[in-house]
TrEMBL record:
Belongs to the binding-protein-dependent transport system permease family. One of its GO terms (biological process) is transmembrane transport. It comes from OM182 bacterium MED-G24. This is Peptide ABC transporter permease. It is a multi-pass membrane protein. The chain crosses the membrane at residues 39-61, 172-197, 209-230, 236-254, 297-321, 341-365. PANTHER family: OLIGOPEPTIDE ABC TRANSPORTER, PERMEASE PROTEIN, OPPC IN A BINDING PROTEIN-DEPENDENT TRANSPORT SYSTEM.
């Protein structure tokens, strides 16, 4: 009999040794599964780093977003060197200055490194002053040069540093994804929970509304509603307007999923016991029913963030979303709307590269969370 009992309780190998499932909480078991998903772990690290950079982008960036360098218009990314032209090693990294000349055939600016003029890179160096979170003024930057200039991602057609603008843009684009998903979760869980818990005519009415919203073409309605935003609105009001528009079509799908979960849970014994004890409807929904599928909601939210980021990028790229002087990835990609820009100044497509990497990271993270939250998942390591 003991042998049968031991076979019925499988062992899980963890960093602390071999433990049985009875000795591991569901949260610990989910964490063990998630750690086995290597791509999800890498994606989580990348996203954490990106959000930390966006929070402190004033400190990370060497310049302000509107700072112009007239000596480097449409200049390519600078190479960081440790060895000079003579082969001598320098412990402190440096960049060379640019010499510019006009191509007689294409009339384009062409830049080449001037190996006789180098600019050492200093870390935690004083530079241009900025207002950190609009709370206090500071001038310390993660890296800067005391003389000359440094443009790791090159410059745009006005000589503005692309490295600075990319990470300032990340703050807007990535925060829209988070704020939009929070609104989607609020409306989706609330409305879906009410429909699934109450049923009857309330459920039927909500389902008809959801069906109408799901039948509408998303991108054309995004474009129409974005174009309808008043021109005189401030940048902050446009930001929240775009966020609400993006979340408007996001909650119906989640609400339908939550409804299905509530229909399955409302007849469970623990829900019936809460009702008999006199718990109100909202308490039953948020205190007793919601925790049973919180992991599913977290996974759904993680997978919804990329859609919000792509939506903002598409609307801003088309010129009907956020507009300058706001800096977002979509606004930056407006500069690359023709093939000449792509061919002659391909570094202006760097914001698009960050969009791709961020969307892939969120999708991989969501995949890992979904596998970790699935109690029946027995998949192996993910490479």
């Amino acid at each position: 009999m003991s042998e049968v009992a031991n076979q019925a309780t499988p062992a899980v190998v963890t960093d602390l040794g071999t433990e049985t499932l009875q000795e591991i909480s569901p949260r610990q078991l989910a964490w063990i599964r998630f750690k086995r998903h290597r791509l999800a772990m890498i994606s989580a690290g990348f996203l954490i780093a990106m959000y930390l950079i966006t929070v402190f982008c004033e400190f990370v960036s060497p310049y302000n977003t509107d700072t112009r360098n007239v000596k480097a218009i449409n200049a390519p990314p600078m190479s960081i060197h440790f060895f000079d032209a003579e082969g001598n090693f320098h412990l402190r990294p440096f960049v060379y200055s640019y010499d510019m000349e006009i191509n007689a055939d294409s009339w384009m600016r062409e830049y080449k490194e001037n190996t006789e003029e180098m600019y050492p890179i200093y870390f935690f160096e004083a530079g241009e002053s900025y207002h950190m979170w609009n709370l206090f003024e500071a001038e310390t930057h993660l890296f800067a040069t005391r003389e000359g200039y440094i443009h790791v991602f090159g410059t745009d057609q006005l000589g503005r540093d692309m490295f600075t603008r990319v990470f300032y843009g990340a703050r807007i684009s990535m925060s829209i994804g988070v704020v939009g998903v929070m609104l989607t979760l609020f409306f989706g869980v609330l409305i879906g929970g009410i429909a699934g818990y109450m049923g009857g005519i309330v459920d039927r009415g909500i389902q008809r509304i959801i069906e109408v919203l799901l039948s509408l073409p998303t991108l054309p309605f995004w474009m129409a509603l974005s174009a309808a935003l008043p021109v005189e609105w401030s940048s902050l009001m446009v930001y929240f307007g775009i966020t609400i528009i993006l979340s408007l079509f996001g909650w119906p799908g989640l609400a339908r999923q939550v409804r299905g979960k509530f229909l399955a849970l409302r007849e469970e014994d623990f829900v019936m016991a809460a009702r008999l004890l006199g718990a109100g409807r909202l308490r039953v929904i948020f205190r007793h029913m919601m925790p049973s599928f919180t992991s599913h909601i977290i996974t759904t939210a993680t997978l919804a963030v990329p859609g919000m980021i792509l939506g903002e990028t598409a609307l801003s790229f088309l010129g009907i979303g956020l507009r300058p002087p706001v800096v977002s990835w979509g606004v930056l990609m407006q500069q690359a709307q023709n093939y000449q820009v792509i061919v002659m100044t391909p570094w202006l497509m760097i914001p698009g590269l960050f969009v791709v990497l961020t969307v892939i990271a969120f999708n991989l993270l969501g995949d890992g969370l979904r596998d970790a939250a699935d109690p029946y998942n027995t998949g192996g390591n993910r490479d």
